[in-house]
Automatic annotation (TrEMBL):
Pfam families: MS_TIM-barrel (PF01274). It comes from Typha latifolia (Bulrush). Keywords: Glyoxylate bypass, Glyoxysome, Lyase, Transferase, Tricarboxylic acid cycle. Its EC number is 2.3.3.9. One of its GO terms (cellular component) is glyoxysome. It catalyses: glyoxylate + acetyl-CoA + H2O = (S)-malate + CoA + H(+). This is Malate synthase.
Length: 137
């Protein structure tokens, strides 16, 4: 018999990195940012059920990869605030953990946390990508 425990892990969605386009959706004739398409579609279709069944009134939760600068975190924060406002949920409901994979991001960790503010669930180091970035740099 397979049965889940009463307390289960929370699902974190990992959108694509900023560098990956969505070829099937165009904005002003150019491919849309894949990460925003991933975020927007998941949030729109799943946020209400996630908040009621998994998030305890919060969420959904995201795992943000390939970030190198706090300006990227600022854009994410704006996207989160806009989505929360459009969905009619309280500010700070969406939470994100940032994957630190590059040397530039390691030097901007405090700034990244600041830009995400109440949307931050913390940082995580992707050690193999980080080591490669360090060696490459």
């Amino acid at each position: 018999v397979y049965k889940l425990n009463d307390k289960i892990a929370k699902l974190f969605v990992r959108p694509r990195g900023w560098h990956l386009p969505e070829a099937h959706i165009l904005v002003d004739g150019e491919p849309a940012a894949g990460c925003l398409v991933d975020f927007g579609l998941y949030f729109f279709h799943n946020q209400a059920q996630f908040r009621s069944t998994q998030g305890g009134g919060f969420g959904p939760f995201f795992y943000l990869p390939k970030m190198e600068h706090s300006r990227e975190a600022k854009i994410w924060n704006c996207a989160f605030e806009r989505a929360e406002k459009m969905a009619g949920v309280e500010r700070g409901s969406i939470r994100a953990t940032v994957l630190i994979e590059t040397l530039p991001a390691a030097f901007e960790m405090e700034e990244i946390l600041y830009e995400l503010r109440e949307h931050s669930a913390g940082l995580n180091c992707g050690r193999w990508d980080y080591i490669f970035s360090y060696v490459k740099t």
